[in-house]
Amino acid sequence: MPYLDHLTIAVRDLVQSRTWYVETLDLKVEFEVPTRNASALQDSGGFTLFLEQRPAEECTPSCVLTFRVDAVDSTYERLVARKVRFERHPQKLFWGYGAELRDPDGYLIRLWDEVSMRDKG
Predict the structure, then answer these.
(1) What is the CATH number of domain 1-57?
(2) Residues 6+ positions from 84 with CB-CB distance below 8 Å
(3) DSSP states of 26-56 as a string?
């Protein structure tokens, strides 16, 4: 059966977006593709998110990125302490219990964890 291996999103500023994903969501730089103005970032589960710099008019957010974290409430508190802005604090939302924020290009980022989803979702 096939499985999703990677996803590419268009970003306006590769350095800014790469820094945001590394510092905010703890993704690791897997490799860079300078000829494509792209970075491959990997999560702890082995999924790769490609960031590819493109002109601003090609950078309309076209998907929602949902990340499972160890504990959404403590992740939220840690990020807020670092001045990361959230659109929605951890709460019950239509998709379950979690928090929402946006990356520098406006992509919606959802954070959730298994225990909170089961107990509060």
Answers:
(1) 3.10.180.10
(2) 24, 101
(3) --EEEEEEGGGTEEEEE-TTS-EEEEEE--G
pLDDT at 1 over 90: no
Residue percentage of the chain with pLDDT more than 70: 100
Q: For the segment 41-51, what is each residue's pLDDT rounded down to a tens digit?
A: 999 999 999 99
Q: In the CATH hierarchy, which fold is given to the domain comprising 61-121?
A: 2,3-Dihydroxybiphenyl 1,2-Dioxygenase; domain 1 (3.10.180)
Q: What pLDDT does residue 121 have?
A: 79
Domains of the chain by residue range: 1-57, 61-121
The backbone torsions φ and ψ at residue 84, rounded to the nearest 5 degrees and listed phi first, read -75, 130
